[in-house]
Specification:
It is found in: Cell envelope. Residues 307-441, 460-600 form the Cytochrome c domain. InterPro entries: Cyt_c-like_dom (IPR009056), Cyt_c-like_dom_sf (IPR036909), Cytochrome_c_Peroxidase/MauG (IPR051395), Di-haem_cyt_c_peroxidsae (IPR004852), Imelysin_sf (IPR038352). GO terms for molecular function: cytochrome-c peroxidase activity; electron transfer activity; heme binding; metal ion binding. The protein is mainly alpha-helical. The protein folds into four domains: 33-159, A middle domain of Talin 1; 160-274; 294-438, Cytochrome c-like domain (Cytochrome Bc1 Complex, Chain D, domain 2, Orthogonal Bundle), CATH 1.10.760; 446-604, Cytochrome c-like domain (Cytochrome Bc1 Complex, Chain D, domain 2, Orthogonal Bundle), CATH 1.10.760.10. Helices cover 48% and strands 2% of the residues. It contains 21 helices and four strands. It has helices at residues 2-30, 36-60, 64-79, 82-88, 90-97, 117-124, 133-156, 161-179, 191-207, 214-236, 245-266, 306-316, 379-388, 397-404, 408-417, 426-438, 446-451, 460-469, 553-561, 564-568, 586-597, and strands at 103-105, 110-112, 497-498, 530-531. Strands 1-2 form a two-stranded antiparallel sheet. Strand 1 and strand 2 (110-112) form a beta hairpin. Helix 2 runs antiparallel to helix 7, helix 4 (82-88) crosses helix 8 (161-179) and helix 8 (161-179) packs antiparallel against helix 11.
Length: 606
Amino acid sequence: MKSNTLKSIKNFLLLIPITLFFLFSNCQKEYTPLSIQDELILNVEKANQKTAAFLEIAKKSDDGKKIQHAFIQARLSYKKIEWAVEYFAPDPARFINGPALDELEVAEHTFLPPSGFQVIEELIYPTYSKENKTDLVKEIKVLNANFKQIKQHLSAITISDSHILDASKMELNRILALGITGFDSPIALNSIPEAIVSLESLKTLLFKLNYKNPKSDNCKEQIAQNLTQATAFCKKNPDFITFDRAFFIKKYLNKISQNLVVFQKINDIKNTNKTSVVNPNATTIFQKDAFNVNAFIPSDEYQFSEAKALLGKELFYENLLSDNKTRSCASCHDPEKAFTDGLKTNQTLAGLHLERNTPTLTYAAFQNAQFWDMRQLDLEKQSLDVIQNKDEMHGDIKAAITIITKDKKYQNLFQKAFPDSNKIEEWQVQNALASYIRSLNTFDSKFDNYMRGDSDDFTEEEKLGFNLFAGKAKCATCHFIPLFNGTVPPAYQKTEQEVIGTPADKTGLKLSPDLGRYKMYPMAQLKNAFKTPSLRNVAKTAPYMHNGVYNTLEDVVDFYNKGGGIGLGISVENQTLPSDKLELKPNEVKALVVFMKTLTDKEYQP
């Protein structure tokens, strides 16, 4: 009996190492790091669960604080996956965290109503009313369904390291242009805590990129340190109003961007060519070569070249393009005035006043639509529109070509610009003029030099002005950094219009009668809607607004400070500009104007 007992004990002891081996093996298997895609899917599911929890609270509770807290938790969970959702599924992403405005399909004369976090935000902030419960529950259900769709989509795609690097760069630019500016948290102003989550998600991504060499390891460690410092700064300075964006971008975001490019080069990670507007090799979004003008051309034969721009410059001053041979493009777009005319509105050929103010042509290349009413999609069509317009030039390109063809100077210029062509054609004239306009982007303002580290010449008042522009004053939610126009980052595939309620005159008593984009596309949302113009060189392009109603930048800031047309007491049913007063103090108004003057290119500076 004793012998059998000892034998059993001995056999049991022999089994212990085997059992421990299997236990250890199972533990090891359990803690194997998830792939980027697997972890992404897991985080999508977590976001879905947070949204489901938010839904239950919205159904059962009327406690505004509890509902707002659940909302914040759900959107923070989205910020963890934002880099992937916005990159791989931009269309459904628009209905998860896009602006609370109708998505217009103007060509089809239809629209899709908004949905997602920003719509929900308007229902529960600044205070929640139980009268909104039905709408709130409905919107959260739609959001929940969108997350399920996103999960299916992200489960089916292939995610390469090239995609990861490209998406990370885009997410950085999104944080810079849409995150810390309050674009996607316009009422709750939870932008800085949300930026923390977005940055931490990039850090997680980085450590999953498995490249083993000393240079790569050192660079990865540097990026991780940059990200840690950036999130620490946000945690220490979470207040939206007082957040120092100028410091944050220069000190942290730019360095992260620079090091991501270095990391990509060290490891020979190829570019994806998924995003054509931003140069993937540009170290920051503020570099002179960061933006590609060819991303906005109609088709490949319209590619920019210096030879085309040189020809276009000659044609820009050519009176032959007008009916009476007395007017050229330069007649209304004076280079000394940053390609404007300094007039409230210009005159027709008959000496009557035109309806609209002459916009600058500088940086016009970075827009997906031209003219105040956005009636043309590219600069080629814009040039033809002006030349043929009976009030502006009333010209005939074909007739001008018959004369130009006989001119040896033009013969040489056209041959250099279009070497594969045997004759001068109408589209070439348009393309040459457009190419000249595409050359009017120097990115050498005081602001540019400061942001990319070429100069430290930026006063405290100018920094305050920038921080107001990108923060409290909310200018950057429509005039996106760094182009300062309405072309939406970080993909830059769409240029926005706004309804701000511009008055007919300085009394501010009635709305401008100009219906804007509505004339071309009679949709209620577009009544009195105008393209968001570039603010680059804005100090040189007065008067302001589509009708030239304001003569100074101080006048313009005052208009926005009061809440646009509605703030002036005008009835504007479809105003897209928030009508709340900005509560800017006199020193803040002054700083804002001082900052905008730093957007003047070197050529136009005194």
